[in-house]
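tmp note - Multiple sugar transport system ATP-binding protein
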Amino acid sequence: MATVSFKAATRIYPGGDTPAVDKLNLEIEDGEFMVLVGPSGCGKSTSLRMLAGLEEVNEGSIYIGDRDVTHRPPKERDIAMVFQNYALYPHMSVADNMGFALKMQGVSKEDRAKRVMEAAKLLGLEDYLERKPKALSGGQRQRVAMGRAIVRNPQVFLMDEPLSNLDAKLRVQTRTQIAELQQRLGVTTVYVTHDQVEAMTMGDRVAVLKDGLLQQVDTPLALYDHPKNKFVAGFIGSPAMNLLDADITEGGAKVGDYVIPIERTILSKAGSDRTITVGVRPEAFKVADKGLPVHVAVVEELGADAFLYGTAEHNNEHQQIIARIDARMPVEKGSTIHLAAVPEKLHLFSTSTEERLTA
Ligand SMILES: Nc1ncnc2c1ncn2[C@@H]1O[C@H](COP(=O)(O)OP(=O)(O)O)[C@@H](O)[C@H]1O
Ligand SMILES: [Mg+2]
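out:
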């Protein structure tokens, strides 16, 4: 096992004018499950491939434990990678697929068989060892790809969207299995996904990337409760946080005719901006007698909860609003209701810099 450190690691692809990964600083603890998350093209795979030695590091460095591996070839890094498409050898049995890397390392046939069997047991693959990949389901192939990484007993697991080829239900089951397995094995893991729900449910910590730049790294709950900027606020959480550019007034900020009370000390930090970006999670709106008038478009009933989708009028524009409401509360489509934001649950951001504002 080992720590992993990215130290201002940068990747500029030939012909690229901006870095795909720009001075990434990230310290991953021994045994930690670190998730890299962000929209497509933000540099997740590039970061992982730099750690794997599959992509050149143009500036900065990467350490595994206390070894500087920045310019070491992949085979000297003691890592095992699970790819999105699994990259199984079609003509080899499951057992041979799982043991292939060990065979290349010159591990004896007996030891290979033993380690393959151990991994197969962990993954529930004992009965499939003689099958070829084409005779397996998607979920089983995914486990073979995991098994191939496990038998190598590496210092670090790297996984690049390993669940994206599975259907939605299997993806949910498998993400729990991977998280449990990682915890049991205690191997430092760097896991890439574009799916923030996957990131939040699996990671000990989550690193959010955008345009090659690390935005914030923290535990799932800390990201949810204290997003550092507007991007993280909108990216983490489902349904997404409402982000309203409200007009700054005496003692608060105004959306339509509704004034959201905000402390003066925070308002003063908005500088010369005339608006402040108010973030309200769907659960931080309450139906009230007075509040923001919202025209109800759809109510999504989920049994325990319901999500209300509607619009509010603000500066002659329709502003989309999402609120979580009590499922037993009768709200009619096409009606207008009033929503008040719970003051202690507000997230406030500078409209110009998009950074979080605090008192
Ligand atoms: N081999 C490559 N050559 C040139 N540009 C690349 C290459 N691979 C990725 N990129 C670019 O680098 C950026 C980051 O890509 P990538 O790391 O694959 O993003 P992600 O995995 O987050 O979707 C994107 O703008 C992408 O177009
Ligand atoms: Mg990718």
